[in-house]
Amino acid sequence: HSYAQLIVSFFLDSTKWNRYTHRELGVIGETLDIPNILIIGENSQAGTYILRIRLKESIKLKFGGFKKGKLIPLPAGDYTYVGSALSEKGSTSLARRLVRHTTRTGNKPPHTIRDDMIKEFNKSQLGPPNPLPISGKNLFWNIDYFLNLEVAEIINVIAIRSSERLENTISEFLESNPDTHIIEKSLGANDSPQHTHILSVNDDDNWWNSIADCLQRTYTP
């Protein structure tokens, strides 16, 4: 599925588009019922995922060694992150990677969504019955430093079950969206620095629902 297909899918329903981006015009359109944890596809244990993260207060953060430990301002609000886990088993399979994201280091509490995520994965036969990290969590990826904050909470997840490499296509799609903003070029994109995988979002639930609906229509077999 190409970037062009995603764009076509997103603009396909003009009524829905009006509902999401021109609410001030009073267009009602269609209200979507998107679950907090949306799983697209059925068979693969590998996949690509999008996280919606809510930052409760404005902070400055070093993302590990990113840009030599540069302190990056992060305003309170919503963020999105695109990642992938393309192994069919082990720690780099889709379920284990996502559960790792919802786990914080040491004695810090996990993200609230973690228990529901494990239940949904078990119902969908995605990952092992217990996908928790075997030996705790160490901070490694840029996103790890963000998600380890107790003021940052994962509130929605889209998981696309596919061995196809979709991460860069979806990140380009999100980067081009008028409601996203690049905080720092290449942030979160260790493997493809020409892209940016952690973006801030200047919109509300309707924006997320429109993205989820577009991805569901594009990648449902």
Keywords:
two-stranded antiparallel sheet; 7 helices; 6-stranded mixed β-sheet; 29% helix; 8 strands; alpha+beta; 221 residues; single chain
List the helices and strands and how they pair.
Elements lengths: L2 H9 L2 H8 L15 E4 L6 E9 L3 E4 L8 E4 L2 E9 L8 H8 L12 H10 L18 H6 L4 E10 L5 H9 L4 E3 L15 E4 L3 H15 L2
Helix pairs in contact: 1-7
In words, what does this structure look like?
The longest helix has 15 residues, at about 205-220. Helix 1 (about 5-10) packs across helix 7. The protein has one domain. It is of the alpha+beta class and about 220 residues long. The N and C termini lie close together (about 10 Å). It is built from seven helices and eight strands; from the N terminus they run ααβββββαααβαββα. The protein has a six-stranded mixed β-sheet with strand order 1-6-2-5-8-7, sandwiched between helices. It has a two-stranded antiparallel ribbon with strand order 3-4. Helix content is about 30%, strand content about 20%. Mean pLDDT is about 90; it is low at about 10-30. A hairpin with an 8-residue loop joins strand 3 (about 60) and strand 4 (about 70-75). The radius of gyration is 17 Å and the shape is globular.
